[in-house]
Automatic annotation (TrEMBL):
Boundaries of every COS domain copy: 357-414
Residue span, Fibronectin type-III domain: 416-522
Organism: Pleuronectes platessa (European plaice)
Segments forming domain B box-type: 208-250
Protein name: RING-type E3 ubiquitin transferase
Family: Belongs to the TRIM/RBCC family.
UniProt superkingdom: Eukaryota
Amino acid sequence: MSAEKRRSSSSGTAAVPIKNIERELICPICKELFTHPLILPCQHSVCHKCVRELLQLNYDDSFDAGSECSMPGSPRSRVPSPSMERLDRLVRSGSISSPGWRRGSVTPRVTAIPCPGCQHDIELGERGISMLFRNFTLESIVERYRQAARAAVAIMCNICKPPQLQEATKSCMDCKASYCNECFKLHHPWGTPKAQHEYVGPTTNFRPKVLMCPEHEMEKVNMYCEVCRRPVCHLCKLGGSHANHKVTSMSSAYKILKEKLAKSIHYLISKEDQVRTQITDLEQLISQTEDNGQLAERQANEHFERLFETLQERKSEMLRSIEQSRNRRLNHLKTQVEEYQGMLENSGLVGYAQEVLKETDQSCFVQTAKQLHLRIQKATESLRTFHAAADPCFDEFVLDTSREETLLKEMCFGGVPDPPMIDLSHSRVYNEASISWRLSDDHLPTDHHVVEYRRLGGPSQSPSQEDGEDSGVWRPTERVYGPSSVVCDLEADSLYSFRVRSCRNSMFSPYSPEVTLHTPPAPALSFLFSDKCGFSTERLILNKRRDTVESVAGMAFLLASERVQTGSYIGLDYIIGDTGISQGRHYWAFKVEPHSYMVKVGVASDSKLLEWFHNPRDTSSPRYDHDSGHDSGSEDTCYELSQPFTLLTLGMGKLFIPKASSSSSVSSANASSADPGNRVLPMPQRIGVCLDYDACRVYFYDADTMRCLYERQVDCSGTMYPAFGLMGSSKVQLEEFITAKRLTF
């Protein structure tokens, strides 16, 4: 590229309006523009300094967010510390380690961090940050943004000395320095190698010409790993961590990814009117939210004002009653005091009686003394049986407001809880449904959750049954205090809808969006992989739980390579379930890793297993078995015959429907499977198999949607077993629900 072209390219790039993309240039940890961003394995970018500070957390800091983490300006003050549960998991898995760290060490180095973008645990390995690529593309965009934001601030020449400091006119990408015109001519004279250096407009972002491999520092990256989604060198592919991964050339990956990105951008640009319409809708929602929020505030004020008025009225009424009762009692007691004061000598009643005794006229004395004597007797009686005229206790006015206080405390003044979201990636449905959900990142603590479900119907349900009491009626479960719940007693081959809501302080959140799941057509068969019947320890790796099997190219396969003369010969390693089927309908589900080369799944009878395991072959032709998935032609002549086994082929992200001479053996969804284009389907994330032993028929499903992909007749004369065949780098994992009962037992 000539200098003029480089300058025009640079100026063209700088002319792109980037001031509106600041949101994409902010580090999720420090909330500032990226500085030397690194690409994590999950493809999110984080500042180099932020990753370093997170990795410098010692063991105690990881479990206790101390004062250092709360210092302003530190990335640790802006990112939540890893939870106790997550750190426990990292410790158990060995992710918290350091070179030379011993088990008794107090402060191991954390080499696994949660990604701030997706919250997945990122294992950096022993080499830590050195294993991460710098995101030079993002770094260049950030630099252009900085230049656009500080257009008035010039980049100065790195060679000139004050006070003759000049503004830089170009930057050399080889020297990694900026120059004014005079200094550039001086340091890049014509006819010297430096004259061939690449130069661009003034910049402070100097990126290397060639991207080097972080694992093999002297090697250039020239390939792209499709499994890890990162550039690799040829040493990584030959003997490194990417040896068994699918890789492609860098030019091919560049072309494919650039075409995909261009198409995606073109699609978004073509939908600009739709985006603007949705932005208008969102702005209307914002306006409605503001109006409704103000209305809610006014209504809340009105409600509380009414409460205050009611309480004030009750308060005034009660205080008035207390005052009236107090005055009445005081009057009674004061009157009684006056009466008792009259009993004292020379005062009141006694003094009056003493004066009457001085009367000498008998007729006058008798006329007055009779009534006076009655009053004296009454006073004497009251003296012997003293009772206060009023009770000084006001117990009848003591209020018990505990119930009302409880009701007020249970009122939620913090707003309605946010609705939870059902997590389909962790929700499964069999005879029972395991429903998981997640809450928003900034949610407040909740008291409990309530799961509700209803049956929407099944394929075999009649219209009269659909109108029954059970159809369409939401049924709640018991209170749930965690992020998942199990719903029992679900009917087979039926559609169920689920929803969840949270409760805090007696106030319920809105319901989550409804999620519809389809129950399998039969009860779940619980089994584990068998490590005894025909299991090849040389080429198959079985984990301790016996729910995951992986095939590897062992030494025996390598030693047998000299007997392989053509590329049409393959070797399959079989493994079966440890539970057989001799009656009824049974269903099981599993996951085949997308990178698997070839996996065969299905059922096989005990007689066929004896043939497979007791007549071993180092290599076998694809024409040997009728269901090998290869269009040899000889398969079609006997395909309709009922065989004691049925295996479906999956591999390299595809599912292959076997070739059939009649569409009767294939589900209605694949009635046109004779067309080769329709016989290759994308491999589902989860695959389900249903065996109807009594009807001698086997079905293969997309376990997420319960769509039948393929079905056919099978000879069930003996005991049938779940069967799996693996070749190359392949991996199969059983569903947790399938293995749970067996593991518990």
